[in-house]
Design goal:
131 residues, alpha/beta, 6 helices, 5 strands, 43% helix
Length: 131
């Protein structure tokens, strides 16, 4: 477990099941659109990561409002660049208020590119299942 406060405030790369994961710090820039997605994708490529794990507190509110188009735009960038995106943390407050979002989260979790997971243990399980 990382206890150094400086290390916790920076994005770092970890390996789970032989997969490089860019583990984003909770206090970094918000994932709020295509530009932010491209910044994370560039960082992941530069650090040889195949998955970007973004804490839910770093995901902009607009992302969870499907009509805004932010989620679709962000996810399309990750799919285009063949990188996986994991939103890590509790999204229950968001999905409780939206049947469409609940269905969206469920459907994306069935695929292999975009996942909503409760924690890093759940991400590790997804990676193990994905092979």
């Amino acid at each position: 477990m990382v206890t150094d406060e400086a290390a916790m405030s920076a994005d770092d790369v970890v390996r789970l099941n032989d997969v490089g994961i860019l583990r984003c710090a909770p206090d970094g820039p918000a994932l709020d659109g295509e530009r932010a997605a491209l910044d994370l994708i560039g960082d992941a490529f530069g650090r040889d990561a195949q998955v970007v794990a973004v804490p839910v507190e770093r995901v902009a509110e607009e992302f969870f409002r499907l009509r805004s188009g932010v989620a679709g735009a962000v996810m399309q960038k990750f799919v285009n660049y063949r990188l996986r995106l994991a939103v890590v943390g509790d999204v229950s407050a968001h999905v409780t208020g939206s049947t469409a979002l609940r269905d969206f989260v469920h459907e994306t979790n069935q695929g292999g590119h975009i996942w909503f997971v409760a924690d890093f243990d759940a991400l590790e399980e997804k990676l193990r299942a994905a092979g």
